[in-house]
């Protein structure tokens, strides 16, 4: 059993147009603040929460348009639909508890499809603020998906599915009790106490008898009896006595608690003294324990609980909200591992989990297909998007998957700069800071992705509607560089933006090859009478570190900061040229004599030495004024463009 889809309309930040959310066994909800992550989890609670209070709709649950000035004369309405599918019905090797209680409501979308059950919560808010809500099965729909035939969901059937909602700070106190709605209480009430009941009664009597032999207690009891006898003359309730321990086991269970050993300076510590994060973990522990016991009872593996009293749910949904708010990162990994073990158990199909998070660290080991990205559109309504990935069969899928797992910060950014490598990650934030933009405050992410498969990252970020800028190395004279880079980017742009092509395909085919002897790219770019292929790409958010890469551009702009003196600027040897341009280079004289004299220093700093170390040391010696005055032109244009875009973005 799996919750495959939920459709939401008119609930909190979900507007009047229905929004569909697809779920997997473990789904991560991410997005900016106020984008609808909590609303998604609460929509599940309104359907199936274990807490009756969370199932009740509030006035604030009904969507109100951001530009609404007067309340309409008609009732506000909302609806939430949930589609559960049952792939386990094809498993003939054993019985599944999820099937019998749902079989009568299953429907097929097509003859070879997987059976499903659809629940629908309808609600209206009257002009007097009175709320009416009904939960029904949907057994038939019209061509537009609107329900035609429905039937009410009985309470017992609704309780077969349970949602456990864990906000960032979850106090387990209400569930460490003997109440009927408490997790521990439900389990303890279902325990078979037959063997212990008589023993507890005898022990209680022995305790009372032992305490009653105390002379002070005897005197107190005699005094009460004497005073009562003067006031009460009836035949019944004639003889009062002091009782210290009840004979009923249920009365003892009402005093249950959870304590931990050892403590700091004491043997036992009550759960109430745990930190907020530890209390949240304790609540999750209770949920996992409850689910494990219910699973065992349904399978018949545990007969110590009475099935009729326990009434275990056949399906459990855990909705976990921003656990990073109260837990340190290493705990987050343990929580995700525990939930994976619960929901991905191949032998069971009775659990599912959703995690809403702002923590990039939680997404480093998460498959992109498990992520749902939420944002608000221009009308301030929630929009839900799945992560778009290349086909799994190609190298691009593996590369993009590893890249987004290595840099999940891109999901939480207002603007992403797709760069080549570590140098961009170090240098660009410093250049932007010199111009007054702090990348952390502006939520700008520098993602070093090696310049590969940029079209897939463009598609991914475009689907998420996260603005992006691309910075690539021009790599003149390197194999495939220069014209080759222009050709690659133009080709990818035509695939990605076919209606806004930078260059028609017929012109693209006429571009010179990377090693063309007649048309050298740098000469063409300097000739004002010819087209500037590089600057014409910049309106498409594609910039180049010219003429080689960012390392070379920074070295030439700030030689003193890199420790380069005039004596170090010498004509390079062929080995140094090969080190800088690669063994398959073509015509190093595309660079000027002055530029080639930096090859030896480049070789020493960035080929033999460490790029990050060299840049960090150099940048530490430069002031903001130094950077602004001598910033490489290609990077200066990039920085100005990033600042312009960042200022235009709304929160």
UniProtKB/TrEMBL annotation:
> CDD domains per the record?
TOPRIM_OLD
What are the record keywords, sorted? Endonuclease, Hydrolase, Nuclease
Q: What InterPro entries has UniProt attached to this entry?
A: AAA+_ATPase, Bact_Antivir_Def_Nuclease, P-loop_NTPase, RecF/RecN/SMC_N, TOPRIM_OLD
Gene3D superfamilies referenced in this protein's UniProt entry, alphabetically: P-loop containing nucleotide triphosphate hydrolases (3.40.50.300)
Q: What is the lineage of its organism?
A: Bacteria, Pseudomonadati, Pseudomonadota, Gammaproteobacteria, Pseudomonadales
- Asked if the record carries the keyword Cell wall biogenesis/degradation, the reply is no
Domain of life assignment: Bacteria
Any Pfam family from its record, for instance, is OLD-like_TOPRIM
**Coiled-coil annotated spans:** none
What SMART domains does the database record attribute to this sequence? Answer: AAA
| Domain named AAA+ ATPase: residues | 23-377
Name of the protein described by the UniProt record:
ATP-dependent endonuclease of OLD family
User: Which molecular-function annotation in GO is an example for this chain?
Assistant: endonuclease activity
